Every structure is written in structure tokens, then in C-alpha cells.
């Protein structure tokens, strides 16, 4: 049983105009087996939360805490965070030219586990996960993210999720740019990972459609850098019907 605990988190980003506070006191607790959807309008700070937990150097935590099973995540290096059991699927995954998917996955697995996976089971596991995600076998020999389509990037993220078996997974806009078939395949992958490892999932999404396939236990609405409302799955249904209008500042009268 694992718990990711975010307490009164304030984060600033460095811009050309100086430092700007983006997260203004975020509180959130994610436990093993729970799926939390973070929803909210564009620019509300959802990705900033993901990057901050992942340790992206552009984001400075000015106050508050993030702990995983009581351990201070914010004092860990990016590698240590992964070893501690955090997984972050980047919204815009980077290219790693010259490194094949196959080598990348094995290196990542070795880094996270602290030992190389046994070759025979590893090859079998990779094949099974790729097959489940309807990925062509030749995909393993391609360069990481080199010329990947949007759908291939997302499948690659979920492939990592399935193989690395994190305690807590943070998925940012996993649904963006996917057609309905790809969305279903990717969602099934997330659900398999949840079932197999009892991972806690923080699912960040602007749109409600992925929540038809991945059922959230809790929904948190982000507005202007903090959680403005929380509820169960019914809150997502309400957002689907009403959008975010009631959370946004009233427009100036003409
Ligand atoms: P969301 O993911 O909810 O759309 P983001 O976390 O991407 O929101 O952005 C929140 C706010 O922070 C936006 O106003 C955005 O312009 C700003 N911001 C985020 N990252 C940076 C950055 N690296 N440089 C400057 N501004 C940023
Ligand atoms: Mg909660
Ligand atoms: Mg975002």
C-alpha cells in the first residue's frame, strides 16, 4: 500500500518577466488502487503539477511538501523519484535519437528495479505488452520517439507503464490526439496496469472522454493553480454536460 501526499504545494516558473506563481496551494492524496482525475481549463496548472512531482528543473517549489510513503519526494533526484516508484508520462515526450525502444525500456527497467530484468521473462513481457497495445513488433527496434505519431507516443508511454510497474503513475493528457480506437487500446492498457499492480493513478485530462474508459474514483477540478472542487465520478459527468464555465471568471459586460 502506497500513498502519494501533496500538501499546500506552491510552485513558480521562471519566465522572461521573472518568477510567476502557478500552483497556489495544492492538496491531494493518492493511494494504491485509487484513480484520481485532475480536470480543469487550459492553463490552470495541471501539467505544472505533473512536472513539479517529476522534478522538472524549470519549476521551483516555493513551499509545501510532496511525499511518497512518508519519504520527501522533492529532495530526490529525477532518477530517485522513478526508483521510489513514481511514473510520469510526459505530455510532450522527448526524442532520444539512436536509442531503440527495446534498449530504452530495458535500461529504464534496470534503473528502476536496481537490477537487470531476466532476459527470457523480459522479452516475453515486452512482447505481451506490445501485443496487448496492438503495437507492431518492429516498433521495438525504432529510435525512441523518432518520427512517432501521436498515437505511437501514447502507446509507448503505456508500454513503459505496464513494464515498469510503478506505485503511482501520473498520466498527463494521455488522451490528447488519439482517435477512438487508440483511446480504447491505451485505456485498456492503463486499466491492466492498475489491475495487475494495484497502482495509484493520477489521470490529468482536460476532456471527459477518457473517463468513459478509465473510471475515476475521485475527480478534482483545477482552477488557477489549486483544487476548486472535488467529488466522485458524478463530477466528471457534470463537467461533460456543463463544461468549465462556472469555474471561470465572469466575462466583462459589453
Ligand atoms: P494546464 O496543463 O492546466 O493547461 P500548465 O500547467 O501547462 O496548465 O500552465 C499553467 C500556467 O503556467 C499557464 O499560464 C502557463 O502559461 C504557465 N506556464 C507553465 N509552464 C510555463 C513555462 N515553462 N514558462 C512560462 N509559463 C509557464
Ligand atoms: Mg483525495
Ligand atoms: Mg497541460
TrEMBL record:
This is Fe-S cluster assembly ATPase SufC. Keywords: ATP-binding, Nucleotide-binding. Gene3D superfamilies: P-loop containing nucleotide triphosphate hydrolases. It comes from Flexivirga aerilata. Belongs to the ABC transporter superfamily. Ycf16 family. Residues 4-249 form the ABC transporter domain. CDD domains: ABC_FeS_Assembly (cd03217). The gene is sufC. GO terms for molecular function: ATP binding; ATP hydrolysis activity. The keyword DNA-binding does not apply. It comes from the Bacteria.
Amino acid at each position: 500500500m502506497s500513498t502519494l501526499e501533496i500538501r499546500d504545494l506552491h510552485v513558480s516558473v521562471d519566465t522572461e518577466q521573472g518568477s510567476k506563481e502557478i500552483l497556489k496551494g495544492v492538496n491531494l492524496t493518492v493511494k494504491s488502487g485509487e484513480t484520481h482525475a485532475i480536470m480543469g481549463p487550459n492553463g490552470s496548472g495541471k501539467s505544472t503539477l505533473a512536472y513539479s512531482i517529476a522534478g522538472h528543473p524549470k519549476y521551483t517549489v516555493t513551499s509545501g511538501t510532496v511525499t511518497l510513503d512518508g519519504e520527501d519526494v522533492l529532495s530526490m533526484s529525477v532518477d530517485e523519484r522513478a526508483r521510489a516508484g513514481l511514473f510520469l508520462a510526459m505530455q510532450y515526450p522527448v526524442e532520444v535519437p539512436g536509442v531503440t525502444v527495446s534498449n530504452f525500456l530495458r535500461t529504464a527497467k534496470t534503473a528502476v528495479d536496481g537490477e537487470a530484468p531476466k532476459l527470457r521473462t523480459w522479452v516475453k513481457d515486452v512482447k505481451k505488452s506490445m501485443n496487448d497495445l496492438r503495437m507492431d513488433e518492429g516498433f521495438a527496434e525504432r529510435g525512441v520517439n523518432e518520427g512517432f505519431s501521436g498515437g505511437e507516443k501514447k502507446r509507448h508511454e503505456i508500454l513503459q507503464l505496464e513494464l515498469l510497474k510503478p506505485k503511482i503513475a501520473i498520466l498527463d493528457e494521455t488522451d490528447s490526439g488519439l482517435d477512438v480506437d487508440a483511446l480504447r487500446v491505451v485505456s485498456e492498457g492503463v486499466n491492466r496496469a492498475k489491475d495487475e499492480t494495484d497502482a495509484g493513478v493520477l489521470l490529468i485530462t482536460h476532456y471527459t472522454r477518457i473517463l468513459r474508459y478509465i473510471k475515476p474514483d475521485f475527480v478534482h477540478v483545477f482552477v488557477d493553480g489549486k483544487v476548486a472542487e472535488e467529488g466522485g465520478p458524478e463530477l466528471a459527468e457534470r463537467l461533460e454536460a456543463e463544461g468549465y464555465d462556472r469555474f471561470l471568471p465572469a466575462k466583462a459586460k459589453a
